Amino acid sequence: MSEFEGSKVYYYSNIDNSPICGRGEPLRLLLNDAGIKFEYIRLTFSEWPSIKQKLIEDGCRIPTLPYLVTKSGKIYGATAPLLRLISKKLNKYIPKNAEDEYLADAYSDIYLDWMNKWVNVFISKDPKATNDYETTYRDNQQTNWENILSDKGGPYIFGGEISYTDLLLYHQLNNDNGAKVDASKYPRLTEFVKTIQNRPSLKEHFENEKKEKSEI
Ligand SMILES: N[C@@H](CCC(=O)N[C@@H](CS)C(=O)NCC(=O)O)C(=O)O
């Protein structure tokens, strides 16, 4: 049994009236896809500072959300490195050769740049920054990911095998605009979104997402 079975995953309460908004979701996608049971604990913005302080006092060096606590009490933070670690330990969701492992890592970096940009624009509420994001930045990102998906023929980044980087990409597409992609401009991204959404291992995940949305 995986050491991550029965973990607790902590993230903020719904942001922007969405159950998936922010950085907590990639972990949920990976754990759900892998069939690993966990508890998802949402913290309010006002609860977080004292919890962060306690984490620091307890020796946690990555005191940000999301973080994961295993049943044995081990604490892990930082989304992409944690997805990578879980994938390595499961020996799944990670390419088997060093070159592709590097690409998975580098593409995760691009995900992080995109997420950081999105967060900055979202927080700023600046009309010019929002307009630049919506008219240029998003298109540039989607074009690059379209090219990435074409390199190995799809439907996933590394061809027929899913990787943790696919889950980061799916999440950012969903986080950004509900995974709406222009099929005429981005056929591979469109196929990618459908492929993720149709994974039998994620059926319950997406049903739960719908349910959470309807309850807000
Ligand atoms: N690189 C980290 C960034 C984590 C991060 O900045 N999380 C935000 C929430 S989305 C946070 O914890 N903010 C509050 C804080 O830094 O104390 C990751 O991808 O997990």
Structure characterization notes:
The protein is an alpha+beta fold and 216 residues long. It is 56% helix and 8% strand. It contains eight helices and four strands. The chain has a four-stranded mixed beta sheet with strand order 2-1-3-4, covered by helices on one side. A hairpin with a 5-residue loop joins strand 3 and strand 4. Helix 1 packs across helix 6, helix 4 runs antiparallel to helix 5 and helix 4 runs parallel beside helix 6. The chain is globular and about 50 Å long. The model has no long low-confidence stretch (mean pLDDT 97). Glutathione binds next to loops. One of its GO terms (biological process) is glutathione metabolic process. It comes from Mucor plumbeus. InterPro entries: Glutathione-S-Trfase_C-like (IPR010987), Glutathione-S-Trfase_C_sf (IPR036282), Glutathione_S-Trfase_N (IPR004045), GST_C (IPR004046), GST_superfamily (IPR050213), Thioredoxin-like_sf (IPR036249). GO terms for molecular function: glutathione transferase activity. This is Glutathione S-transferase.
Small-molecule binders here are: glutathione
Coarse morphology = globular
Strands across the major sheet, in which order?
A: 2-1-3-4
Q: How many angstroms does the end-to-end distance come to? A: 34 Å
Task: Kindly list the characteristics that best describe this protein.
8 helices, single chain, alpha+beta, 4 strands, four-stranded mixed β-sheet, binds glutathione, 216 residues, globular
Topology:
Layout (H helix, E strand, L loop, with lengths): L6 E6 L12 H9 L4 E6 L4 H10 L9 E3 L5 E3 L1 H12 L7 H27 L2 H25 L12 H14 L9 H11 L5 H13 L1
Parallel strand pairs: 1-2
Antiparallel strand pairs: 1-3, 3-4
Helix pairs in contact: 1-6, 4-5, 4-6, 5-7
The structure holds glutathione.
Glutathione binds next to loops.
